[in-house]
Each structure stands twice: as C-alpha cells, then as structure tokens.
Amino acid sequence: MATRGFVGRRSPEETQKRLPPGQHRVEDFPILQIGPNPTIDLATWRFTLREGAKPLKSWSWDEFQALPRTAWQGDIHCVTKWSKFDTGWEGVSFDDLLADARIAAPTDFLLAEGYDDYSTNVPVADLAGGRAMIATHYEGAPIEPDHGGPARLFVPHLYLWKSAKWLKGLRFTKKDEAGFWEMRGYHMYGDPWREQRYTSD
Ligand SMILES: Nc1nc2c(c(=O)[nH]1)N[C@H]1C(S)=C(S)[C@@H](COP(=O)(O)O)O[C@H]1N2
Ligand SMILES: [Mo]
C-alpha cells in the first residue's frame, strides 16, 4: 500500500533522473533470449567456476543453497531501451562464491555461460565488491524459467544482456573475450549511463 502510493506519486523529474540516456520506463518485465528455455533439472544442476578449461570449483543445487545470501533492490536497464524500477533480487554474491571456493579470481575477465549456448563477458572487477550475484529469487519467489531460473547472473549496473540467464558457470579468461552478443556488435562493457550499446559507442 505504502509502496504503491509512493510509486504513484513519483514526479516525472525523479523518473527522468533515474533513467539512463535513451531509456524509457516500463511496468512489465519483457523476456529476451536467443532461443527456447533450456530444460534444467535441479537434481543434476551444477554451477562451475573454471579457469580456461580447468574446473576450479563446482556446486550442486543443495550445496549452492547453503551459501550466504545477499539481497539487492534497484533499477534494471535493457539495451532494447526499457528500464524497470525497484526490482528486488536475492542470491549469492560473487564475493561469497569465491570465498566458499577459497580462491582469488585468477584473471581479470570472465565469460558467464548459460545452459543454452549463450555467453557474455564481464570484467571481474565489475562482479567483485558486492556488485553482482548469482540470483535465484526475484521479488521473493524463485526466478521463473523465462527470466533465467533456477539461477542467473545479475549485474545491475550494466545492461541486462550481461546478466546471463540459466547460468551454468563462470569461466575466467586471460583476455577480455567477446560473448554471444559482443561478437555480434554489442559493446564489450555495456554501461547504460554511458549508453554503450554497440561496439562503436
Ligand atoms: N542464457 C541466456 N542469458 C541471457 C540471454 C540469453 O539469450 N540466454 N539473453 C540476454 C539478453 S539479450 C537480455 S536483454 C536479458 C533479458 O533478461 P530477461 O528475459 O529476464 O528480461 O537476458 C540476457 N541473458
Ligand atoms: Mo538484450
């Protein structure tokens, strides 16, 4: 009740200030992906950290549930120009993941890889320091398959294509390697506030 009233009274100026350049606000939650939802069975789900081809650490679903949990609330921005305000997410922070694996990040870059054939590159510095999580819950409920459940990467300060759905693992790479969309003309970094949509931006 209080939240709805507050949202209703928000001034156009406040909305504008929270919108990165070229974005508009939506109330729904669009679904964008390169193919059908992959079929994922929690009994066989695994999440793996790799350095190149070498596995560093992997978690079953039950093991993953035992990790410390983190919550985040705020705005998300898609390169297709919609932004959604005040979204709530919960999961395991990248920092807690590395702590559980008892490793420091071995390189400065990684590729987030989905159970479909999707991948996207993110600098390690953008995941560390509480800036990203492996999200399992959206608005208090398990993330729906359409939005990447059971677990997706969530990096809210970058365009949403960096938040790989149906996350299978994170692969540390020596260099900043392009992922699926970055190979097809999307920006290597993707900062919404600098409007880094395409390679040339
Ligand atoms: N595994 C996987 N993750 C993905 C994608 C995909 O095709 N496969 N699409 C990306 C793109 S382009 C966007 S804009 C967001 C959309 O997330 P949403 O469907 O939850 O809005 O997911 C990103 N993560
Ligand atoms: Mo996208």
Automatic annotation (TrEMBL):
Residues 1-22 are annotated as: Disordered. CDD domains: arch_bact_SO_family_Moco. InterPro entries: OxRdtase_Mopterin-bd_dom (IPR000572), OxRdtase_Mopterin-bd_sf (IPR036374). This is Protein-methionine-sulfoxide reductase catalytic subunit MsrP. Gene3D superfamilies: Oxidoreductase, molybdopterin-binding domain. Transmembrane segments: none annotated. Residues 35-181 form the Oxidoreductase molybdopterin-binding domain. It comes from the Bacteria. Pfam families: Oxidored_molyb (PF00174). Signal peptide: none annotated.
